[in-house]
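Sample entry (235 residues):
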Amino acid sequence: MQNSYHKKYSGLDELIDIEEMKNYNKFIVSQCLKYITTLNQVVDFGAGIGTLSIIFREKFKLTPLCIEIDDVNKEYLKKRNFNVFNSFEEISCKSDLIFSSNVLEHIQDDLNTLRQMKNNLTDEGLIYLYLPAKMSLWTDLDERVGHYRRYEINEIREKCKSCELKIVALHYADSAGFFAILLMKFFGFKSNSAIGSVGLFKFYDKWFFPISKIMDIIGFKYLFGKNLILVAKKI
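Predicted structure, serialized as tokens:
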């Protein structure tokens, strides 16, 4: 049975705002597809309203199966013509790719979820996770959106080892975002919503994130970042 994750993060308004981050969302998907050779069945775990699944479908002609437990999000996904499931148990075939963005940190028993992912992969299948990094970046915003943790590299490495997953790639992402979070932590995050305004997202996406991508490319992703990218497969 899929573990429940905090539903207070699944507010529709915030997810719609995040959808405005076009460059950021395309980056997450493109990084995932760098590691894929054979791809028939894809699962979006914790799909939200389908922001990344839409990119898969429109840009890469792949339609993921969506696992989502929030009722409002489920209805949104169905209106967007995605097949929606409550858990891996409802999906009959194993997957070539299970991807998940900013979800695992909402699940208390993340080890159990990693094991579920592994058990639902094909022999050559991959897990791709995009995770918030560094407990040193923890703010009250993490608390408000229902995070149990931000991940350290050694922590997720040990959890993969415990679940008998072999790491294909593990590094930071959004290097410049590391400093953005530090600034937010220092000055405080003032907002009426749990996440922030759509204007802030658009500004970050248009002006700040391109700088972050360049920093990642030239090697800062091996030193620090706002997020972690993990690619893993069965041992």
